[in-house]
Amino acid sequence: MNFNPKIVTDGLVLCLDAADKKSYSGSGDTWYDRSESDNDGTLTNDPAFSDANGGCLVFDGVDDRVDTSENISFGNNATWEAWVNRTASVNTYNMFMGRYLPYFGLRSNNKIIFSNLTDGSQRTIYSTGFTSSNNTWYHLTFTTEYDGTDTTSKIYINGVLNNSGSYFGEQGEYSQGFAIGDGCDYLNWYPFNGKVSSVKIYDKTLTFAEVLQNFNAMRGRFGV
Q1: How does strand 171-172 pair with strand 112-118?
Q2: Is the pTM of this model over 0.85?
Q3: Cβ atoms < 10 Å from Cβ of 216
Q4: Residue among 97, 112, 117 at smallest CA distance from 180
Q5: DSSP line for 98-114
Q6: Is the N or the C terminus of the chain less surrounded, counting Cβ atoms within 10 Å?
């Protein structure tokens, strides 16, 4: 993996970057995974490409999404990361990454939300003391870490720890696939209206220093 030597590459199981021509050329239906896991994404319902900020996909908030070819396996210790820019809130959750447990979204009340499955129960953590703005780029990261008894979840915004919480049990992996730019429960979809430029998943818990490293490696592209 020689695509961006400044980011953390150890533990990557998904790495999609619309500014990397080897990941997305600017046209076509495939968003190629630059990790070694070959979890390529298929563009569904034609999300548009924009060359803004080096390159990003634009989701219409109706039915655009990217579906990966496989479920993403991440285990007990994991990290989810994305550069996102919401145009408008179009539903309660505005899911930009995941599908259903886990999912990562921007709520209509402008809080960041991450929800996953721990010890068979849905667990949710929100950002605190933070109000997101539309038409603004954010580097959003969520980590989980299992200590043998509890799973600790953390939300980082632009490389800074925002909130954390611990829950009994191990994190479970939901076998309903993985999507970008949309997400659903059993009945309802919660599409994202805005831009997504880069998406990463690690099968390890990034440290604060590693989260900050990834933020600093790409922040210049987004004017943050």
Answers
A1: antiparallel
A2: yes
A3: 14
A4: 97
A5: ESSSSEEEE-TTS-EEE
A6: N
